[in-house]
Amino acid sequence: MRKYARQAEDWSERQYADATAYLSHRADLVMSLGPRLEPGDEVLDLACGDGALAEPLLARRLRYRGVDSTEEMVAEARRRLGPEASVVLGDLNDYEPAEPVAATTLFRAVYYARDRRAFFRHVAGFTEKKVVFDLNPRQYELAGVVADLGAAGLGRVALRPFLIPQTVSLPRPLTTLARALERSGPPARLALRFRFTYVVAASR
Ligand SMILES: C[S@@+](CC[C@H](N)C(=O)[O-])C[C@H]1O[C@@H](n2cnc3c(N)ncnc32)[C@H](O)[C@@H]1O
Q1: pTM of the entire structure?
Q2: For a pocket test of ligand 1, which of 50, 70, 123 has the largest count of ligand atoms closer than 8 A to its C-beta?
Q3: 88: buried, middle or exposed (CB in 10 Å: 19+, 13-18, 0-12)?
């Protein structure tokens, strides 16, 4: 995809106002939302972009494999991660790892699934613990997504509002507050009516 080819260099540094805070919070949820991941578990990150999510996942002693369909993103991810992780060129709609993985993730890319229900079914076939992705509830009807997950055998769905802003860097106390607000129920859901996304962890 040409637009991503042009943006590959320093993708995360330019996309996220505070990439470290944003991606480490994302990694915490990959680890803890739904069935917990354990050290040594492998995460398959579809549409991985420059692979920056690998850094906090590796720091949590998970293994990481990235897949992206843009050559320049794959090159950037390999440059960033070196031999610590494997990153390959592939299409999220049909990529299949040689061995099952503990978790499959998909961030800011659910709209690239050609047929969402078929995609979840495909991924469920090689994912042992959970599929984790983000979802904009103003763009997608949650009930329809949950129904597609159920049809793929992923009927246990955990949802968590993700309230760390992408384009604004918060001072540390506000980051702590935003993370606490994510568990607040109605206030968090109110915020989602205007901004932010859910992180979804779906399992059997
Ligand atoms: C908005 S970026 C998200 C990157 C990263 N996951 C993140 O959250 O920063 C979307 C990524 O999806 C990749 N992509 C688009 N269509 C894809 C496909 N069919 N299969 C695999 N990757 C795809 C693009 O190359 C790009 O790196």
Answers
A1: 0.98
A2: 70
A3: middle
